[in-house]
Specification:
The two termini are 51 Å apart. The protein is 37% helix and 14% strand. It is an alpha/beta fold.
């Protein structure tokens, strides 16, 4: 069963970075011993010190427990992870992960949800997500960012319905109508449309969809092109065989 993370108040990381942990350790030792080595006798804690002593000790104990815990062992874990990613990455990356997890971490389970770039970091902070897989975002200092896979895009089409030479020329790219993938009704694929706009060019979009997994189905038997992220394009070509071609442009 999945365990919910407790919601905590936001941390002032700038202030936390200025804290001297050694002073907290010394303070706790002093409060337990009630004396200072080589200092005059008769030192008595103030009421404020007594008030601080109560939360400092369990905080240090918690930190010690984190630092001394055993190394992560995937094979012994019984955990549920909540992951947000695009449907294209889900289809291209998750099957290989599941195969690996079945042998290396059989007790690990997943919940997969659609990528929400505008909400993803907040969902990480409040425990609604454990992992966000997508394009780099402007994260806060406490967010951990790792490069997972290379980016890039490829053109895909049905070679039985689209007659073009390879490598694909810009003229052919613009002469064939497109399937545009966008999660917003009022927005297109920024990578493609922005690049064309810089050349003062525009493609003709025949259909727009929010689901990259539906693109190969839309292309089959239709004189249409689509631009997909590299891994999604390769996964589509593999799943649909020779009916979908991945092309590069010149």
């Amino acid at each position: 069963m999945a365990r919910r993370r407790r919601r905590h108040a936001p941390i002032d990381h700038a202030q936390a970075s200025r804290l001297d942990l050694n002073l907290r350790v010394a303070f706790d030792a002093l409060m337990r011993e009630h004396h200072i080595t080589r200092a005059p006798t008769g030192v008595v804690p103030t009421p404020h010190a007594l008030m601080l002593a109560e939360p400092v000790r369990p905080a240090l104990a918690c930190l010690q427990g984190v630092l001394t815990q055993r190394p992560f062992d995937p094979a012994s874990q019984e955990r549920h992870f909540k992951v947000s990613l695009s449907d294209g990455l889900e289809s291209s990356l998750v099957p290989a992960f599941l195969a690996l997890a079945a042998s290396e971490a059989p007790g690990v389970t997943l919940s997969l949800s659609p990528l929400q770039e505008s909400l993803g970091l907040a969902m990480l902070d409040d425990g609604a997500l454990d992992l966000l897989v997508g394009p780099p975002l402007e994260q806060a200092p406490h967010h951990k960012l790792r490069l997972f896979c290379a980016g890039g895009h490829r053109v895909v089409f049905d070679p039985d319905a689209v007659d073009v030479d390879l490598p694909l020329s810009l003229e052919d790219f613009l002469s064939v109508p497109h399937v545009r993938v966008s999660r917003r009704a009022d927005s297109g694929d920024a990578v493609v449309d922005d690049a064309l706009a810089r050349l003062r060019l525009k493609r003709r979009v025949a259909v727009q969809t929010a689901h990259s997994l539906s693109v190969p189905h839309l292309l089959r038997g239709s004189r249409l092109l689509a631009v997909l992220p590299l891994r999604a394009a390769l996964a589509s070509a593999q799943a649909f065989g020779s009916s979908i071609v991945v092309a590069t442009s010149r």
